[in-house]
Write a structure and sequence with these properties.
- This protein is mostly helical.
- Helices cover 65% and strands 6% of the residues.
- It is built from 11 helices and 6 strands.
- The strands form 3 sheets. The chain has a two-stranded antiparallel ribbon.
- It is globular and about 55 Å long.
- The protein starts with 12 loop residues before the first strand and ends with a helix.
């Protein structure tokens, strides 16, 4: 008998009148706000402008959600397209199921679009946001607690997670892998912030450090999970993904440090109308030319006015004589 354990919520949905508030979605939303808040502070400290991180996040977040869902559905397709399954459930993102690998990959595409529109380098933006992403994951993992999913092997440890009977799960106490990963992500965020201050990481290396550190934790935590997953050579697919992505991140760290040492001096250069919108620049140039022409004409009129006044004063005696 387990004397102490972490209880699971009886439901993952709280109804505010007719509006359902789902714990999974709420955790994701909190994570996004935390990531943008911290990313904005770090971006400004690097010399960027306030609001830039949020502007780019408008592109990155939707792409990330789509990518995370696509990765989950593709790698666990049997949950949605297997016998007796309803493929419509693949669109029910509020019921859980986001793959961080797909979220980061497609979210990077959205961020690249936003960075291109603002004329700033994607690696610099990614460095500013890296620890915030780790914090967002730490928040988002609590959504698994609300849904009673993604737990580990059975255990009677004092911090075991109590799971109730339900679809595709057996009542009992299990390793709270969601909690392990949440705590690990907090440590990753702290590591990236410390290393960035200590070594002045730039050109995407802070982001690469976040990826590498996260993969280390995800590898051993994934190995503990007991939920259904595909295996390659007896090892869960996400463990292999962690290994491959870890090696890629470390390789980037090493090569980037050699090829582009140091940190970007300017992350968000000032962009005038000519750089951002040629049509606007042409209109402004035409307006400037018109203003110069008007100023020249006004100067000529002003120059002629004193002459007229002198001539009037000189002619005054002649007028008096005639009178």
């Amino acid at each position: 008998m387990t004397l102490a354990f972490i209880p699971s919520p009886s439901t993952g949905v709280v109804h505010l009148g007719p509006i359902p508030l789902r714990g999974y979605a709420f955790c994701i939303i909190i994570g996004v706000f935390v990531a943008v808040w911290l990313g904005n502070k770090r971006w400004i400290a690097r010399g960027g402008k306030p609001g830039t991180v949020a502007d780019i996040a408008v592109w990155a977040v939707p792409f990330g959600l789509i990518g995370g869902r696509l990765y989950h559905v593709i790698t666990d397709y049997q949950l949605y397209f297997g016998e007796g399954r309803n493929w419509v459930d693949a669109f029910k993102i509020w019921e859980g199921g986001l793959g961080i690998w797909g979220a980061i990959a497609l979210g990077a595409v959205g961020a690249w679009i936003g960075c291109r529109l603002r004329g700033i380098p994607l690696p610099a933006w990614a460095d500013a946001l890296a620890p915030g992403i780790a914090l967002a994951q730490a928040c988002g993992r609590w959504g698994n607690w609300f849904n009673q999913e993604l737990y580990g092997r059975a255990t009677d440890l004092p911090w075991a997670l109590e799971i109730s009977e339900g679809p595709n799960r057996v009542a009992g106490t299990y390793h709270p892998t969601f909690l392990y990963e949440s705590l690990w992500c907090l440590g990753v965020a702290a590591l990236v912030i410390w290393a960035d201050r200590r070594f002045k990481l730039g050109h995407g290396r802070a982001f690469a450090l976040y990826v590498a550190a996260y993969c280390v934790g995800r590898g051993w935590i994934e190995y503990m999970r007991v939920d259904e997953a595909h295996h390659i050579l007896g090892v869960r697919l996400n463990v292999w993904t962690s290994i491959v992505v870890f090696l890629l991140a470390v390789t980037y760290l090493v090569l980037s440090a050699k090829l582009r040492p140091g940190r970007e001096e300017v992350v968000e250069p000032d962009r005038g109308p000519a750089a951002s919108d040629p049509a606007t620049a042409q209109k402004d140039a035409a307006g400037t030319a018109d203003a110069d022409a008007e100023a020249t004409e006004a100067a000529k009129v002003a120059e002629d006015e004193p002459k007229d006044a002198v001539q009037t004063d000189a002619d005054a005696p002649e007028v008096g004589k005639k009178l």
